[in-house]
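Problem statement: downstream parser choked on a complex file, so we are re-checking the raw output for the flavin-adenine dinucleotide run. The parser issue turned out to be on our end (a line-ending mismatch), but while we're here, posting the original submission so the record is complete.
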Amino acid sequence: MELCLATEELSRACGAIALGFAGTALGTYPILLYGNDEQKKRFLPDIAKGKKLAAFCITEAEAGSDAGSIKTHAKREGDHYILNGTKQWITNAGEADVYTVIAITDKAKGARGASALIVEKGTKGLEFGKKEKKLGIRASATREVIFTDCKVPKENLLSKEGMGFIVAMKTFDNSRPGVAAQAVGIAQGALDLALDYSKKRVQFGSPISSFQAIQHMLADMATQTEAARALVYATARMVDSGAKTISKESAMAKVYASDVAMKVAVDAVQVFGGYGYMRDYPVEKFMRDAKITQIYEGTNQIQRNIIAAHLIKESLR
Ligand SMILES: Cc1cc2nc3c(=O)[nH]c(=O)nc-3n(C[C@H](O)[C@H](O)[C@H](O)COP(=O)(O)OP(=O)(O)OC[C@H]3O[C@@H](n4cnc5c(N)ncnc54)[C@H](O)[C@@H]3O)c2cc1C
């Protein structure tokens, strides 16, 4: 809930600044959920104090939605894992000190052949690609994370070998309400701007806020944002209550709030008319920032797949 509230408030001003924070939560969840006491003591205090950022690395050039096809490989040699491969589009990459990485440790075992490792910045063999030029959330660093014979101490394995995809999926279950909160904040920020502008912009001798067409747009934007917020808070409370199965609800919050953010931000630009299309005004940024919430931490198509799979499974009980 606290993660959601902070992410929402930051996103109301800037979705990218919020992502520095929320991306750190994403990178930290594997340690919170699966770290042993020693790992938690070593890594969490500095992250909690804001001294260090974290990043989560699963995506690769050929493995996005189909995370099971990752190729990054970790081979155990004595007291270390030797990590090789390239992760793509990693939020906070280069800025973060702590990287939680999903890599294959036993190809023959398929989905049970991946493991999660903690890699610290400064480890030999860890490098970063160039900062990507993006449509939105441009203040957030997105880079490749490149491992070349990167020697990671065996003590940095999270849980057990073979648990990598479970670590990843549970991480997303917990972090998706944060993306949903980012979406609510972006929607609220866009609505704030549109409402303010509608009172100042005069056409036909009246502020455009006096036209019913504009009033109805604002009313729908506010109602949709409030509905998304209610769903996100309910999901966050459910997660905090320790509920065991949260995948469906997390996916619902993410899919609904991000679709609302996109719609509200597009409508906010419409309220601004041609000025909304100009970079001179901040509202177009909200539209560009909103789009990413429908894509990362699993696209909205994938969220709908998850929701439907749960619905069908539940109906068979
Ligand atoms: C700015 C940014 C930051 C990111 N940060 C991180 C990060 O910190 N860590 C990290 O690991 N990754 C990160 N990602 C990666 C992100 O999670 C992936 O981009 C996302 O999961 C989608 O994968 P993809 O881009 O390869 O799309 P693809 O998987 O290639 O999908 C392309 C299209 O096909 C659809 N599709 C694919 N499979 C199905 C299916 N089975 N059913 C229906 N539709 C389907 C998708 O919904 C999408 O519309 C980031 C991405 C971006 C753009």
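For whoever reads this later: The chain has a mean pLDDT of 97.
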